[in-house]
């Protein structure tokens, strides 16, 4: 007999929880002891300036470590059983509709073929086709992206049946053709040829920067019409143009080569004028929320970055395992899949996996109110973007309400006119969009902020972490790109700390305490710009000047320092290794924190402060997804890619140099007995730790000759600045 309530999901608590709790208690006590020691020191020490700086640094580290424990109080893992869904949903028509949002912003940083691949991979989902709608938002307002999508719509007619026929797992064409070399699949050669042809055409057009003159375009009148919208207007730029909506595929009309329905595919570039704030990605998402509301109004929405293609066609069914459970659905805002990247090198030299963020901490929040929203790979309940779980907040027009039933076809003139209206750049003026309805404005990490605000309203979220990654995205391989990306995030965190809804005030009141501590942990990341530079320069400069600043080996306080340092590192190490990490990756992740602490964090702080005084405008600088073969090969071999003369390289080069100097000086002092080894032991150990981490820098400064090495300008400037520091230090302290 069939089970009326088949099992869809299950929770598995993690075994280490008790150990975590005991450790948290001991570690917190040790931190309090440290501050006792600090204040004792302040009252007797002659060198108060150094002590105050060290105290400040330790305060930030303490806040970070204590809040870090919140993630470890009740971590859980979950399992889903999508194979049981057919017992509940007997017909395809019973499946809830799914609207998929893909955002892109610049055809030169985000190559249209990449965006097209993402779209094709989700159009081919194992899900009733008539229920799928893919909406592409193009903030670049580019005819090149539109052109690529017109080609993709034609290709989809072949690609979707091909995936279905061979039951492919890999449904992103580029990834499929790259992975299956040598295997025989019937019809593969033909379809690969069609794909390559499309790719060449699109790339040629991109190179020329213009679609006019491509032979088969001029033949098609419909196509001409939409392009004339893009380019026929005087002064048309990506920042100044009317709304462009192009229905590329309509499920009720278009068929694939086997006569099956195709999903809806709609291209939209919202209206832009120079004087209106367009709110970056959050603005784009809200526009998509409205346009999709008018056209299909699906109850479930998947948001994707242009580079996160689907790596598993069953993903929507996994999300459905939660949305089909009425007990869970009532206050479930989103099901978050982790952000996993392809193309990261073997030992992940930049720590780009963000393992603690993506995996370890996410399991921890999942046991509380749920993981934070990370902008991509998230299945939202549309209703959650309108008010709290108990009371719905209705938008200005009834057609935008999450429970409105659309009864006209997409191409209907009324629908199109209304869609055009709600995509207008003045539409949101004097409305609650971006503040109480939809995705939240006010932070460069709109994703994090939106998830946080939803949790504050009482919504929950769930982490779905299947073995096979559901999505794969791209991650920067040039160090400067990576640092600029983190800098943008940290500026976003600053905006959140300082806003009216800061987790430090509003969050603590509205959330469960542990969940609030998790959010505080993240928003306190930018303050790493205090301890890392302090610990990277101060003990070193003091060592060069033979000034001991930590307790000596015979002092009992020495063991406290040792415990705090080793304890923190070991906790991370255990977390890392028990979630499938390797030792080199863990080591590099440590390094990445030191690097960010000297670059992205302080630069974000500086830029944020300058911004407050009106000296710099904060903006969403899109991360480049262009693949540079030369850089990639260097990165794949495990080398840092410097190359450009970025000011952010100055601080890390300075730290590398000064630590080397201090380390040699410390060893010399110890050997020649000027300062007894036990007095400066901790300083020498710390300096040695940084020196070992700085190896890639020494290599890039001295040994490398390739284009990715450290520019000579940066090295010379750093040496000069280090000299200045060495001269100034004895005068100041
Ligand atoms: O004005 C804009 C700026 C960006 N985007 C899109 O936003 C996405 C993310 O941009 P990206 O440059 O890749 O930023 P990342 O830092 O890699 O993105 C991470 O961090 C962002 C918040 O800073 C989140 O929105 C993303 O989901 C998350 O992957 C891309 O698809 C862009 O096309 C827009 O649509 N409009
Ligand atoms: Mn990205």
UniProtKB/TrEMBL annotation:
<keyword id="KW-0472">Membrane</keyword>
<feature type="binding site">
    <location>
        <position position="281"/>
    </location>
    <ligand>
        <name>Mn(2+)</name>
    </ligand>
</feature>
<keyword id="KW-0808">Transferase</keyword>
<feature type="binding site">
    <location>
        <position position="139"/>
    </location>
    <ligand>
        <name>UDP-alpha-D-glucose</name>
    </ligand>
</feature>
<feature type="transmembrane region" description="Helical">
    <location>
        <begin position="50"/>
        <end position="71"/>
    </location>
</feature>
<keyword id="KW-0812">Transmembrane</keyword>
<feature type="binding site">
    <location>
        <position position="305"/>
    </location>
    <ligand>
        <name>Mn(2+)</name>
    </ligand>
</feature>
<dbReference type="GO" id="GO:0071555">
    <property type="term" value="P:cell wall organization"/>
</dbReference>
<dbReference type="GO" id="GO:0016020">
    <property type="term" value="C:membrane"/>
</dbReference>
<dbReference type="InterPro" id="IPR029044">
    <property type="entry name" value="Nucleotide-diphossugar_trans"/>
</dbReference>
<dbReference type="GO" id="GO:0030244">
    <property type="term" value="P:cellulose biosynthetic process"/>
</dbReference>
<feature type="transmembrane region" description="Helical">
    <location>
        <begin position="598"/>
        <end position="620"/>
    </location>
</feature>
<feature type="transmembrane region" description="Helical">
    <location>
        <begin position="516"/>
        <end position="538"/>
    </location>
</feature>
<feature type="binding site">
    <location>
        <position position="109"/>
    </location>
    <ligand>
        <name>UDP-alpha-D-glucose</name>
    </ligand>
</feature>
<keyword id="KW-0961">Cell wall biogenesis/degradation</keyword>
<feature type="transmembrane region" description="Helical">
    <location>
        <begin position="558"/>
        <end position="577"/>
    </location>
</feature>
<protein>
    <recommendedName>
        <fullName>Cellulose synthase-like protein G3</fullName>
    </recommendedName>
</protein>
<feature type="active site">
    <location>
        <position position="139"/>
    </location>
</feature>
<dbReference type="InterPro" id="IPR005150">
    <property type="entry name" value="Cellulose_synth"/>
</dbReference>
<keyword id="KW-0328">Glycosyltransferase</keyword>
<feature type="transmembrane region" description="Helical">
    <location>
        <begin position="710"/>
        <end position="732"/>
    </location>
</feature>
<dbReference type="GO" id="GO:0012505">
    <property type="term" value="C:endomembrane system"/>
</dbReference>
<feature type="transmembrane region" description="Helical">
    <location>
        <begin position="18"/>
        <end position="38"/>
    </location>
</feature>
<dbReference type="GO" id="GO:0016760">
    <property type="term" value="F:cellulose synthase (UDP-forming) activity"/>
</dbReference>
<keyword id="KW-1133">Transmembrane helix</keyword>
<dbReference type="Pfam" id="PF03552">
    <property type="entry name" value="Cellulose_synt"/>
</dbReference>
<feature type="active site">
    <location>
        <position position="447"/>
    </location>
</feature>
<feature type="binding site">
    <location>
        <position position="110"/>
    </location>
    <ligand>
        <name>UDP-alpha-D-glucose</name>
    </ligand>
</feature>
<feature type="transmembrane region" description="Helical">
    <location>
        <begin position="679"/>
        <end position="698"/>
    </location>
</feature>
<feature type="transmembrane region" description="Helical">
    <location>
        <begin position="640"/>
        <end position="667"/>
    </location>
</feature>
């Amino acid at each position: 007999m069939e089970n009326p309530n088949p099992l869809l999901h299950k929770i598995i608590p993690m075994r280490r929880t008790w150990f975590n709790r005991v450790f948290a208690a001991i570690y917190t006590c040790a931190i309090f002891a440290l501050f006792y020691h600090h204040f004792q020191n302040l009252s007797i020490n002659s060198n108060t300036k150094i002590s105050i700086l060290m105290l400040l640094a330790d305060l930030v580290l303490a806040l970070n470590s204590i809040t870090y424990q919140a993630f470890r109080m009740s971590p859980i893992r979950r399992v889903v059983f999508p194979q049981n869904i057919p017992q509940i949903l007997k017909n395809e028509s019973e499946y809830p509709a799914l609207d998929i949002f893909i955002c892109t912003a610049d055809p030169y940083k985000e190559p249209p073929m990449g965006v097209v691949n993402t779209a094709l991979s989700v159009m081919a989902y194992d899900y009733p086709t008539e229920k799928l709608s893919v909406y592409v938002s193009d903030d670049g307002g580019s005819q090149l992206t539109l052109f690529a999508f017109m080609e993709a719509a034609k290709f989809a007619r072949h690609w979707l049946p091909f995936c279905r026929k061979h039951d492919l797992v890999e449904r992103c064409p580029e990834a499929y053709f790259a992975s299956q070399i040598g295997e025989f699949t019937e019809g593969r050669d033909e379809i690969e040829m069609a794909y390559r042809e499309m790719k060449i055409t699109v790339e040629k057009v991109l190179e020329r920067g213009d679609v006019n003159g491509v032979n088969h375009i001029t033949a098609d009148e419909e196509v001409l019409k939409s392009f004339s919208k893009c380019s026929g207007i005087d002064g048309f730029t990506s920042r100044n143009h009317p709304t462009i909506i192009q229905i590329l595929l309509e499920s009720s009309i278009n068929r694939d080569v086997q006569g099956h329905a195709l999903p809806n595919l709609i291209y939209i570039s919202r209206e832009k004028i120079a004087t209106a704030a367009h709110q970056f990605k959050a603005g784009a998402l809200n526009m998509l929320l409205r346009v999709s509301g008018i056209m299909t109004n699906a109850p479930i929405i998947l948001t994707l970055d242009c580079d996160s293609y689907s790596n598993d066609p069953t993903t929507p069914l996994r999300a459905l395992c939660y949305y089909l459970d009425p007990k869970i659905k009532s206050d479930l805002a989103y099901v978050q899949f982790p952000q996993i990247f392809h193309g990261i090198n073997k030992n992940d030299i930049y720590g780009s996996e963000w393992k603690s963020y993506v995996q370890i901490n996410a399991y921890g929040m999942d046991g509380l109110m749920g993981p934070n929203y990370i902008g991509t790979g998230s299945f939202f309940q549309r209703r959650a973007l309108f008010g709290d779980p108990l009371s719905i907040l209705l938008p200005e027009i009834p057609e935008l309400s999450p429970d409105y039933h659309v009864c006209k076809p997409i191409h209907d003139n009324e629908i199109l006119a209304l869609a055009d209206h709600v995509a207008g750049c003045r539409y949101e003026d004097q409305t609650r969009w971006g503040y109480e309805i939809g995705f939240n404005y006010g932070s460069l990490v709109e994703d994090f902020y939106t998830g946080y605000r939803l949790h504050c309203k009482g919504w929950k979220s769930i982490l779905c972490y299947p073995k096979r990654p559901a999505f794969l995205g791209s991650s920067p391989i040039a160090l400067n790109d990576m640092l600029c990306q983190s800098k943008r995030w940290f500026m976003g965190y600053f905006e959140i700390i300082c806003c009216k809804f800061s987790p430090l005030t509003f969050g603590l009141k509205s959330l469960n305490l542990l969940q609030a501590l998790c959010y505080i942990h993240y928003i306190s990341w930018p303050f790493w710009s205090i301890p890392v530079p302090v610990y990277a320069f101060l003990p070193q400069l003091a060592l060069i000047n033979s000034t001991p600043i930590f307790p000596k080996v015979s002092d009992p306080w020495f063991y406290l320092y040792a415990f705090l340092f080793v304890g923190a590192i070991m906790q991370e190490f255990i977390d890392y290794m028990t979630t499938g990490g390797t030792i080199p990756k863990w080591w590099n992740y440590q390094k990445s924190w030191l690097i960010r602490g000297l670059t992205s964090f302080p630069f974000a702080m500086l830029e944020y402060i300058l911004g407050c005084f009106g000296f710099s405008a904060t903006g969403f600088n899109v991360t480049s997804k262009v693949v540079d073969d030369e850089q990639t090969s260097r990165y794949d071999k495990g080398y840092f890619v410097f190359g450009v003369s970025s000011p952010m390289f100055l601080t890390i080069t300075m730290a590398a140099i000064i630590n080397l100097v201090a380390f040699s000086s410390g060893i010399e002092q110890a050997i020649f007995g000027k300062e007894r080894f036990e007095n400066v032991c901790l300083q020498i150990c710390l300096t040695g730790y940084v020196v070992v981490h700085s190896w890639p820098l020494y290599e890039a400064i001295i040994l490398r000759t390739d284009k990715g090495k450290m520019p000579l300008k940066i090295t010379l400037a750093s040496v000069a600045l280090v000299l200045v520091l060495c001269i100034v230090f004895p005068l100041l302290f």
